[in-house]
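Input sequence (203 aa), recorded before submission:
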Amino acid sequence: FTSPALTGAVLAVAGLVIAVLYYRLEAGRAGIGAQAPELVDVAVPAALERAHVALPDAQAPEVLGQVEQFAQAVLGTLAAFSAMLVLYKTGVIRNSPRFTKTLLIAGAGYLLFGLLNMLLSAFSVGGYQSVYSGGGILAIAVSGFGVVLASFFLVLDFDYVDQGIRNGLPRAYSWTAAFGLVVTLVWLYLEILRLLAILRGQD
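Predicted structure, token format:
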């Protein structure tokens, strides 16, 4: 279960389905009958077919280990999504200009850190090794921060959907909402997958 194509295809399908269902649910509650584009009905089977083709041959123990880690990452993503949705809907966490500004600054800083870490480790500048290399408390803390940050970005996606429905935006904007939610879910999944790898002792 090591093919990036397989992982990406399955995750994209799951994220797109979640995004579309969430948007349809919120639109239905608003009584405006908004629907996601019908292209989803074609994209989902096609992605699943490509995922099946991408599955490589591997030894049973290795496959089982990869499947278990993949399943844990998917379940962790769904759990984080559900938790943030409940917190948002109950009003525990609400979006605001200050909240958005804080997240954007944190996100930009985390992105810059990731790029520097990748470049320095790739070219071994001064013998530098990736923060995530070898695991340890620092690697777990940084990866955990990424999981929390990605989870909070879901609030921005939820708020965007709510505002779009309240303002009666055209149906075409449902793609923007779905795409934003899928991107955040993919990011969250990758952060959880990296955290699991660190905890399992995999560099």
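Checked by second reader. Confidence is low (pLDDT under 50) at residues 1-9, 32-56.
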